[in-house]
TrEMBL record:
One of its GO terms (biological process) is chorismate biosynthetic process. The keyword Hydrolase does not apply. Catalyzes the specific phosphorylation of the 3-hydroxyl group of shikimic acid using ATP as a cosubstrate. The keyword Nucleotide-binding applies. It comes from Malaciobacter molluscorum LMG 25693. Its EC number is 2.7.1.71. Monomer. Pathway: Metabolic intermediate biosynthesis; chorismate biosynthesis; chorismate from D-erythrose 4-phosphate and phosphoenolpyruvate: step 5/7. It is an enzyme of class 2 (transferase). This is Shikimate kinase. Coiled coil: none annotated. Substrate binds at D35, R59, G82, R139.
Length: 169
C-alpha cells in the first residue's frame, strides 16, 4: 500500500534535517524526524541515550519508531538518523530518498556551518573522524541498496536540491 510517506536517509551531517525543513516550506508535506521522536519518548537527547544506555538501546528505540511509523503515519516527510536505513520495514513505511555526498563533502558542510561545534558535539558517532569514515565506507553501498531515489547533494544549494526532490517524488 502506498502511504504517501517520503523518507530521507543518508550519513550524519549530510543535511537531512535542513533539506526536510526546506521541503516542508515548499510543499504541503508535514514532517517528522526519527531522532526527535526518540528524544521525545525518552525525554533526553540522543547523545545522553548513547552515554547512559549505549548504542544497542538506541537501535531498539529506532526499531520501535520504525514499526510505529509503518502503522500510524501517512503523507509525511520523514527525516531519519544516519543509522535508521537498516530498519527492515523501511520500504513499507514509504519511498526512500538517499541524500548522497562524499565523506569529505559532509565534513566540509559541517565545518562551514555556523554551528559546526554543536553539530559535532551532538553526534556521538562523529567524535572520532577515523571511525566515522570507516562507518561511512561500510554504509555507503547499503544506502544505495535501500534507496528508491538517489539525490546528489554535494556542493549544491538547498533550493536546487529541494527542487530536484519535489520533481522526482
Ligand atoms: C546516527 C546518526 C544520528 C543519530 C545517532 C546515530 C548514526 O543522526 O541518529 O547519533 O548511526 O548514523 P543524524 O544522522 O541526524 O546525525
Amino acid at each position: 500500500m502506498n502511504k504517501g510517506n517520503i523518507i530521507l536517509v543518508g550519513f550524519m551531517g549530510v543535511g537531512k534535517g535542513t533539506i526536510a525543513r526546506e521541503l516542508v516550506k515548499q510543499s504541503s508535506l508535514f514532517a517528522i524526524d526519527t531522532d526527535d521522536l526518540i528524544e521525545s519518548i525518552e525525554n533526553r537527547k540522543v547523545k545522553k541515550i548513547f552515554e547512559q544506555d549505549g548504542e544497542q538501546y538506541f537501535r531498539n528505540l529506532e526499531k520501535r519508531c520504525a514499526l510505529w511509523l509503518e502503522e500510524n503515519v501517512s503523507n509525511t516527510l520523514i527525516s531519519t538518523g544516519g543509522g535508521f536505513y537498516k530498519q527492515e520495514n523501511l520500504n513499507k513505511i514509504g519511498k526512500v530518498i538517499y541524500l548522497q555526498s562524499s565523506f569529505e563533502g559532509i565534513l566540509n558542510r559541517i565545518n562551514n556551518s555556523e554551528d559546526a561545534q554543536k553539530k559535532l558535539k551532538k553526534r556521538p558517532l562523529l567524535k572520532n573522524l577515523e571511525e566515522a569514515k570507516k562507518l561511512y565506507d561500510i554504509r555507503v553501498s547499503d544506502y544505495i541498496k535501500v534507496a528508491d531515489i538517489i539525490i546528489n547533494v554535494e556542493n549544491r544549494n538547498i533550493i536546487d536540491i529541494t527542487e530536484e526532490i519535489l520533481e522526482k517524488i
